[in-house]
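User: I've been trying to design a sequence by hand for this structure and keep getting stuck. Would you show me what you'd pick, starting by listing the structure so we're on the same page?

Assistant: Good idea, let's start from the same input. This is the structure you sent:
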């Protein structure tokens, strides 16, 4: 009986761990040079085993190289390669990171398959406008010490 409980407990822990995926990275330009910005994206299911992973949470760090963390959230969805750097589904992290500086709504599209990102924001309360795009490496240099370039300043 104890072995059975142990096996069931192990399966439950493994299934919960498998229901979420985390990405932490410094945003880089298309040549691999780091910006001062860091993103943490948590892709998960609200009900593992019943609903698919479609939710995104996390944070955005260092907007305008200011040293602050900003919360973020969104969804996984398919988007045309016309709107992103790469192709396929993206993890969208919406954040108020730049609102105090620009008054703009901010959205970071993260392509987990191609390791690319695209930034959009709304400057006129009407539409989404491309700001910048680049690459990332999960877990590599999850800080951007020394860089004074902001990813939203192309």
């Amino acid at each position: 009986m104890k072995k059975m409980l142990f096996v069931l407990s192990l399966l439950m822990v493994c299934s919960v761990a498998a229901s979420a995926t985390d990405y932490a990275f410094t945003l880089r330009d298309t040549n691999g040079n780091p910006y001062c910005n860091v993103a943490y994206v948590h892709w998960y299911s609200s009900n593992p085993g019943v609903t698919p992973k479609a939710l995104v949470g996390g944070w955005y760090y260092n907007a305008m190289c200011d040293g602050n963390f900003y919360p973020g959230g969104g969804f996984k969805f398919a988007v045309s390669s016309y709107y992103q750097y790469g192709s396929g589904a993206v993890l969208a992290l919406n954040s108020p990171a730049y609102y105090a500086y620009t008054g703009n709504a901010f959205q970071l599209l993260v392509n987990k398959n191609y390791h690319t990102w695209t930034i959009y924001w709304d400057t006129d309360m009407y539409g989404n406008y491309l700001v910048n795009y680049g690459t990332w490496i999960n877990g590599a240099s999850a800080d951007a010490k020394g860089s004074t370039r902001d990813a939203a300043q192309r």
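That's my pick for every position. To get oriented when you compare it with your attempt: The two ends are 61 Å apart (CA to CA). The chain has a mean pLDDT of 86.
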